[in-house]
Amino acid sequence: MSKPVDTPVESHQQFGAAFLLTQLGTHAATRFGERVGELALTPPQVGMLRLIGQRPGMSQQALADHLGLLPSKVVSFVDELEGRELLARSRSARDRRVYELTLTDHGRALMGSIREVAAAHDAAITEPLDDAERAHLVKLLRRLAEHHGLTPGVHPGYRKM
Amino acid sequence: MSKPVDTPVESHQQFGAAFLLTQLGTHAATRFGERVGELALTPPQVGMLRLIGQRPGMSQQALADHLGLLPSKVVSFVDELEGRELLARSRSARDRRVYELTLTDHGRALMGSIREVAAAHDAAITEPLDDAERAHLVKLLRRLAEHHGLTPGVHPGYRKM
DNA sequence: TATTGTTATACTCTATAACTATA
DNA sequence: TATAGTTATAGAGTATAACAATA
């Protein structure tokens, strides 16, 4: 029986910026997840390490708030990262209910690898653009991100990872 | 006790195009889901209706392939959309195992509303840009989408919805 | 009484594989 | 034997709420 030829129904022509952003954003997120997966990390764990590196002493509650994660999920992530000696829990002297989280030397070293991975990822995603185009793209995207009130550095989809 | 002031740790300055794309893409996808949710549809259902409208007679298997959905999921989506009389199943005369899917009049009418919602969504996402900037953004994004082999019109995250 | 971190549990979702009918 | 569509089910993942320690 003659199968109908699988002609592409549409080109990218007819899709607007919003749909292209969704497509590329999902693609970029997936690829980033694969890349940090090679460091045995998930994207939300990367977000946690980054934030703890920037604000040593942060509590688990604060982490959950900033990243939009459930506190119970933060527990299991911190459990794992502590077990791998990437970060350390220490009871706060001022409020003995909270843990102050800090990166270990090992954790700080891993942050270096993460930064390398992120740079390679960024280069790969924007590969077809020259420097001027890349800069222009970033400028436009930054305008949109600010307009929509997106928090710098926080992936809005962590809740589900 | 004096709580530390919650100063923003970073600005958008230091984040590259890839991360901005992830953020904006996730945001755009979420907002689009909310908008079509008002039509009692999910994004993958919208993708199905759109595809059936373009290629009447498509099989469920072909739908699953094109959209990256599990066949079992297509069954339940088609069940629901058929129940709402947005599309119709009819057995193929040539191969009685397959269903040929077509939009009903009601389904075609709903596609009109979907197109309106999509246009409003696109306008909202790109609101802070003027026409020239919007066109430039689309041009850059299209280059990236083509470079990464993304299929026009197909959200790569349908698998998980 | 409220909050931090933790644990347990009910719930949903997903993927896989088994099944039927046709080919 | 292979494929389209369907159904059932086991496993994973999520959110909720209950809990102990401290404020």
Task: Give an account of the 3D structure.
The structure is a homodimer of 161-residue chains. Chain A has helices at residues 17-37, 43-54, 60-67, 71-83, 105-125, 131-147; strands at 87-91, 99-103. With 161 residues, chain A is mostly helical. The longest helix of chain A is centred in the first third of the chain and has 21 residues, at 17-37. The model of chain A is unreliable at 1-9 (pLDDT under 50). At the A-B interface, α1, α5 and α6 of A face α1, α5 and α6 of B. The structure holds a DNA duplex (23 and 23 nucleotides).
**Number of H/I helices of chain A:** 6
User: Strand portion of chain A, in percent?
Assistant: 5-15%
Main sheet attributes: strand count, strand direction, barrel closure of chain A: 2 strands, antiparallel
Form type of chain A = elongated
Name the quaternary structure: homodimer
Count every beta strand of chain A, where a strand is a DSSP E run of 2 or more residues. Answer: 2
Low-pLDDT stretches of chain A are 1-9
Decide which structural class fits the backbone of chain A: mainly alpha
The SSE order of chain A reads: HHHHEEHH
Largest interface: A-B, 61 and 61 residues
Any idea what the radius of gyration of chain A is?
Answer: 20 Å
Please give the alpha-carbon distance between the first and last residues of chain A: 45 Å
Strand order of the largest sheet of chain A: 1-2
Mean pLDDT of chain A: 91
Proportion in helices of chain A:
55-70%
